[in-house]
Amino acid sequence: MKTAFPKNFLWGGATAANQCEGAYNVDGKGLSIQDFMPDGVMKPPGKTIEERNLKLEGIDYYHHYKEDIALFAEMGFKVYRFSIAWSRIFPNGDEEKPNEAGLKFYEDVIDECRKYRIEPLITLSHYETPYHLAKTYDGWRSRKMIEFYTHYAKTVFTRYKGKVKYWLTFNEINSLWHFPYMGAGILTPKEKLSKQDLYQAAHHELVASAMTVKLAHEIDPENMVGCMVLGLVNYPRTCHPDDIIAVMEENRKGFFFTDIHMRGHYPFYTKQMFEKENIHIQMEDEDMEILKNTCDFLSFSYYMSKCMAKDDSQYEKGKGNLTTGVKNPYLKESEWGWQIDPQGLRYILNMYYERYEKPLFIVENGLGAMDELVQTDQGMCVEDDYRIAYMNDHLLEVKKAIDDGVDVMGYTAWGCIDLISASTAEMKKRYGFIYVDRNNDGSGTLKRYRKKSFYWYKEVIASQGLNLIEK
């Protein structure tokens, strides 16, 4: 007999400020590193602001948030994950006093969510370090960033006390390994950075995250703070022991962050690795004690899995979300070459829960596709059955993980309303349940349309997942 998701399961969707808000120079907002990434993460930063009007304007959520949140409420959202643009609160990132207009904007967004009984889930840093901090301090390579970040966190925790319960510190913090500019605001080109540099920057972010957990609990004991990582399942390409070891080594790159966030100390395997790589993390005396302020839950994005091989030169490479591996011959791909693996979501949920035994939250999952708005009997719509199939299959695996005994808090579908792609800075790569009339060239009315998946997800939430089709 089919069973429903838990009654307290947090259904919802997710967006990021830099991909939807627009209004980059409105109400005192400062520039962020995103304002110098006209082509997303696929090309190096450095172009002028005028060359990236599409991302600067986004879907103009800044002026449409009431309309958009009303649509989320119509679907039945229990939670809405969004990010605060740090440079709206502190335009340069290192000011003493915050920008009141920025604080007021997010307070209005929060109040709009609460009007519909939607819980806000706020990401403090979602790939948009204030550009001034990147330029002046080379981002998180500098320990000074801890001071600036925690001052920002304390400011918003205090302002929104009693209105926001769920917080995330850094979005996909492990992306630092692959894209240090986006993940840590580091202007020095990646090829000029040593492993010492990257691990030092990671240490600064991890200390800041732990200090933020402590601050959140002190300011409001009801606060729950999670870490957020890019979740990837790594399979061995063959059963050769060398490929098994390749998976182990790749997994540790991600576990490095989750182990420290959830266990409160550096994992055992770093000792030998640091000695071998001649890495010497500069720490303050209190750092190891600070790291003991562990997160209340672990959240992650999940879009795909990949294969690993000791010698990957003999295999075709796949494409993916910030990181790539060897193609899996048993999986299909999205239009962007991301391999679709619903069962991997059940696997990673069990993997994390076995390791930490703390609640888990899937805060990004979805399918990017080239949707077509067409006229139907019900009006303009997108017949996105491919998205429904993708999400149906992934949610079935979430339910199986819950049945396995995994404590899953909720699920927020990525890009619940169409927004600008982070990886390619395109509008045509759409994830949403809501179509936004905006094109790659910046044209469009910005009018919102409900897709077929809008009504499907509404029924998923209303039925607590009982309408999912098992295969």
UniProtKB/TrEMBL annotation:
Its EC number is 3.2.1.86. The keyword Ubl conjugation does not apply. It is an enzyme of class 3 (hydrolase). GO terms for molecular function: 6-phospho-beta-glucosidase activity. It comes from the Bacteria. Coiled coil: none annotated. The active site is at residue 364. The keyword Ubl conjugation does not apply. GO terms for cellular component: cytosol. Gene3D superfamilies: Glycosidases (3.20.20.80). Keywords: Glycosidase, Hydrolase. GO terms for biological process: carbohydrate catabolic process. Belongs to the glycosyl hydrolase 1 family. This is 6-phospho-beta-glucosidase. It comes from [Eubacterium] hominis.
